[in-house]
Structure formats: C-alpha cells, structure tokens
Amino acid sequence: MRLLFIRHAEPDYSIDSLTEKGWKEAELLSRRLGRLNPAAIYCSPMGRAKDTASFTLQKLGRSAEQLPWLEEFPCRIPRPDRGKPGIPWDLPDDVWTSHPQMYDKDAWAMDPLLQGLDDVASAQRRVVEGFDALLERHGYLRSGPLYRPLRPNTDTLLFFCHLGVQFVLLSHLTGVAAPVLWQNFCVLPSSVTTVCSQQRQRDLCCFRVQSLGDTSHLYAFDEPPSSMGFFSEVFQEEP
User: Fold this and answer.
1) What is the residue-wise DSSP string for 30-48?
2) In the list 46, 130, 151, 215, which could disulfide-bond 139, CB 3.0-4.6 Å?
3) How far apart are CA 2 and CA 208, in angstroms?
4) What is the greatest pairwise CA distance in the chain?
C-alpha cells in the first residue's frame, strides 16, 4: 500500500486559501497526481487543503472524503519568549533540545514544554486513532508499533493535509518523536511524501518512508518551490 501525504500549496493563511503562486503549484501538482488511480482520496476540511486538492479531483473526476482529524494540528503552546501562544513546531532550538522527553516517541506530547494551553496528548491521540481506524478499513490493523495485514494490497491513498499533522502521522508510523520531525525536517508547500507498506513477515508489516517532501512536479516546469514553513538559513534580527 502506498500512502501519499500532500502538504497544501503555498497558503494565504489570512483567508485559509492559496496565494497566486499556490494556485499554480496546485495545478502543477495535479499533472502528477492526475495520472494515478488512487483507491481513496482524503482531505483536511480546511480551505487551503481543499483548494490544493481541487485540481487533482477535477482531473480524476473524483471527490475526496473530508476527515476532521486531518486538519492542521490544532494545538497552541505557551511562548513566554514572544508573549503570546505559538505552534509546537516553531520552538527555539536551544529550548526544545534541552528537554529529553521531546525525543521520546511515546511521551513527547506530555513534555512540560507543550503544556499549559491545549491538550496536546489528547489531540495526538485523536489524530492517530482516526488514522489507524482508516488503515484498518483498508486492510491494515495496528499491532503495537507495527501493523497486521488483514487484507494485504497495493492500493494508493492520497491525503491532502498540512505540515504539522503530517509529521504527527509520520511519527506514529515510524516511531520517531513528532518534535524531532517538526524541528529537523521540512515538507514544502505542495510537496508529496510517499510511505509504503513493507511486509517481510507473513503476519506483520511496517510502513517505510520512500521519499519526503518531493517537489519534482514543480522543478519539471521550472517553478521554484515555496519556502513557507522553512525558517531563515542565516540569522537575521527581528525588526
């Protein structure tokens, strides 16, 4: 089974849609995905994800099932350094790396750094429980850190979603703590991450990342990828 996680194209967060460049990215993405024959297509209920999916759905003549838990990871955390709440994947490097629990695949959501506003652990459970219920529908039952292939298949599933929730899902599939993925990996707008089932035993399988954040559909048409979601490469003083 192939799971394709697609981050929405370049967003205009102020209207929960896409920028002019984002619409172009979404159309170029559809030229790639429109050649597939997915068994199912799933989408976040947020506007920027639905708009990104729209070109692909039109090309395929399909509709997408909207999944509430596929929305952007909804939690906000305290940011004393900024004087206002922030997202959990935008932390100073010297802060989050000083918390060993942030590296724990089972306990990261309970780290004190993430507490005080929203219930991060409950939000994480909502995402992974929704995801596992979906995979079971498609023939793969969660069993500890692995999956039992009830109905092994080579289906392709598309997920139009967001950076934050995508890494929560990849954390669940790979056993790497979400903060490590949030802070040390990046998936640019309209990028495609491919995860495949790998069954080396009769009754168990894992899911293995084949590519992360692929934007080759943009390079094919000389469209530079957006850097939204990737912070400055060289330190700059904030105004």
Assistant:
1) HHHHTT---SEEEE-SSHH
2) 151
3) 10
4) 58
SS (H, E, C) 124-152: HHHHHHHHHHHHHHCCEEEECCEEEECCC
The domain spanning residue 140 has which CATH number?
3.40.50.1240
Q: Cα–chain-centroid distance for residue 13?
A: 17
Q: What is the mean pLDDT of residues 216-231?
A: 93
For residue 239, the model assigns a pLDDT of 60
* DSSP code of residue 94: H
What are the tokens at 204? 């168990």
The whole domain housing 56 covers 8-192+201-211
85-105 per-position pLDDT tens digit: 999 999 999 999 999 999 999
Give the DSSP letter of residue 223: P
| In the block, residue with structure tokens 């692929």 | 214
Would you state the structure tokens that stand for residue 23, as one six-digit string? 């619409």
Radius of gyration of the chain from Cα atoms? Answer: 18
Beta bridge partners of 148: 141
From 119, 113, 124, select the one nearest 79 (Cα to Cα).
Answer: 113
